[in-house]
């Protein structure tokens, strides 16, 4: 099996970011909310930078205020109000944006994208022990997808998944990532003592597919705007968005599933089948 040149940077960033994410999730409360909020604002900055949106300061101010306001609103848990604030922030960004048509179209979606990172983890974590389990489950599914897709793709090879957007990804990696994500999700629930029926396995499959879709989406964005990485924040491996693209899409889907199944207890709605 041939290891790519990006393996060591990926490993290094994972060894730093993964323990930080798990420790913050276990801690919960305002430290976790603060960490997620900061990450969302950084992702917003990377989005604005990527699409070369102007005026950058105004867009970051409008979007940042919307994200922080939404997170503060979550303290009293009216989730629809927090979502509405994010949407209004996107609309305000669209009104502020200047320049070419492409910049004006893409600029406001940065607020929505950053909001998709900010809201789901905090909302899920608020549900006590089951909230923590749901968050660890989500991390396990996303990380299992990434790791298994990387190694299965290089070990098995075969047809490319979407060569025009991401020439290194293969169908074997995608399928392997999905299968291991399902196993990782079920193992997490088993270890946590959550007796979820096998119907929870297809949820892990859907979340894994969403994670891979988020990765492909960011790759397509970078090709559209002609950038290699979302930023240079992480030495040797690009920006925070490059590491969280799959998690953002997976978290957004997990939140949607929880809302649809049990709006009063989203973690339970996500995991308990």
From TrEMBL:
Quote the EC number. Answer: 2.7.7.41
Any one GO MF annotation of this record: phosphatidate cytidylyltransferase activity
Listed under GO biological process in this entry are: CDP-diacylglycerol biosynthetic process
Pathway linked to the protein: Lipid metabolism; Phospholipid metabolism; CDP-diacylglycerol biosynthesis; CDP-diacylglycerol from sn-glycerol 3-phosphate: step 3/3
Q: Show the stretches that span the lipid bilayer.
A: 20-45, 57-75, 81-98, 105-124, 130-152, 173-192, 244-261
**What residue ranges carry the coiled-coil annotation?**
none
Q: Kindly provide the name given to this protein in its UniProt entry.
A: Phosphatidate cytidylyltransferase
- Would you say which domain of life the source belongs to? Bacteria
Keywords attached to this entry: Cell membrane, Lipid biosynthesis, Lipid metabolism, Membrane, Nucleotidyltransferase, Phospholipid biosynthesis, Phospholipid metabolism, Transferase, Transmembrane, Transmembrane helix
Q: Which organism is it from?
A: Ancylobacter novellus (strain ATCC 8093 / DSM 506 / JCM 20403 / CCM 1077 / IAM 12100 / NBRC 12443 / NCIMB 10456)
Give the primary localization class.
Answer: membrane
InterPro entries named in the record:
PC_trans
Instruction: Please give the family membership noted in the entry.
Output: Belongs to the CDS family.
**One GO CC term, this protein:** plasma membrane
- One Pfam family cited in the UniProt record for this chain: CTP_transf_1
Catalysis performed (reactions): a 1,2-diacyl-sn-glycero-3-phosphate + CTP + H(+) = a CDP-1,2-diacyl-sn-glycerol + diphosphate
Question: Where in the cell?
Answer: Cell membrane
Say if the entry is tagged with keyword Transmembrane helix.
yes
What is the topology of this protein in the membrane according to its UniProt annotation?
Multi-pass membrane protein
């Amino acid at each position: 099996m041939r290891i790519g040149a990006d393996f060591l940077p990926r490993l290094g960033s994972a060894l730093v970011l993964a323990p930080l994410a798990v420790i913050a999730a276990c801690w919960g409360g305002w430290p976790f909310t603060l960490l997620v909020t900061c990450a969302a604002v950084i992702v917003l900055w990377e989005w604005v930078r990527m699409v070369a949106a102007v005026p950058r300061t105004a867009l970051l101010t409008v979007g940042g205020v919307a994200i922080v306001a939404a997170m503060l609103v979550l303290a009293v848990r009216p989730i629809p109000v927090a979502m509405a604030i994010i949407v209004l922030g996107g609309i305000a960004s669209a009104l502020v944006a200047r320049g070419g048509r492409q910049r004006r179209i893409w600029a406001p979606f940065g607020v929505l994208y950053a909001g998709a990172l900010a809201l789901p983890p905090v909302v899920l974590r608020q549900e006590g022990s089951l909230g923590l389990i749901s968050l660890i489950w989500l991390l396990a599914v996303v990380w299992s997808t990434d790791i298994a897709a990387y190694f299965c793709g290089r070990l098995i090879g075969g047809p490319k998944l979407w060569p025009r957007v991401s020439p290194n990804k293969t169908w074997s990696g995608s399928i392997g990532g999905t299968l291991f994500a399902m196993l990782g999700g079920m193992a997490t629930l088993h270890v946590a003592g959550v007796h979820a029926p096998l119907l929870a396995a297809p949820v892990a499959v859907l979340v894994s597919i969403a994670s891979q879709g988020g990765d492909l989406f960011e790759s397509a964005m970078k090709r559209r705007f002609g950038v290699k990485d979302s930023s240079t924040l992480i030495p040797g491996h690009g920006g925070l968005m490059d590491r969280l693209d799959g998690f953002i899409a997976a978290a957004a889907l997990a939140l949607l599933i929880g809302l649809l199944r049990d709006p009063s207890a989203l973690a339970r709605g996500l995991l308990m089948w």
